[in-house]
Amino acid sequence: QVQLVESGGGLVQAGASLRLSCAASGLPFSTNDMAWFRQGPGKEREFVAAIFWSGSSTYYAESVKGRSTISRDNAKNTVYLQMNSLKPEDTAVYYCASGKGLSRWSVRNKYNYDYWGQGTQVMVSS
């Protein structure tokens, strides 16, 4: 049974930092591509960041580029999202997702991912 379990969300003030974690089990983590998406109140789920299985390539949404870093530890079956200089517009539920065989053209599309976590809430106050 595949499980993706996110953690690290919370309520912070604008300008603060958070590190989200996603622990995976039940899948070949080291050969799967991983990503973070988010869904704000009344909004569709949107791409945040992705990292290929090898860690060789990373991709970011323009809204978080320069403020966020995605990384992975294949020995721990965990992917991370470090977010700095948080803004109120970053408020959302953040979801971890796993897919396979993605490309730089397909990583941003949520329909290309096979497995999803339950999400962790991030709230940024102004």
Question: Could you give a short description of this structure?
Answer:
By secondary structure, the protein is mainly beta.
Number of strands: 11
The value of Rg in angstroms is: 13 Å
Biggest sheet statistics: 7 strands, mixed
What sequence of helices (H) and strands (E) makes up the elements?
EEEEEEEEEEE
Mean pLDDT: 97
* Helical proportion, percent range: under 10%
User: What is the overall number of helices?
Assistant: 0
Principal-axis shape = globular
Q: Which structural class do the helices and strands define?
A: mainly beta
Q: Bin the strand percentage.
A: over 45%
**Cα distance, first to last residue?**
40 Å
Which stretches are poorly predicted, pLDDT < 50 over at least 5 residues?
Answer: none
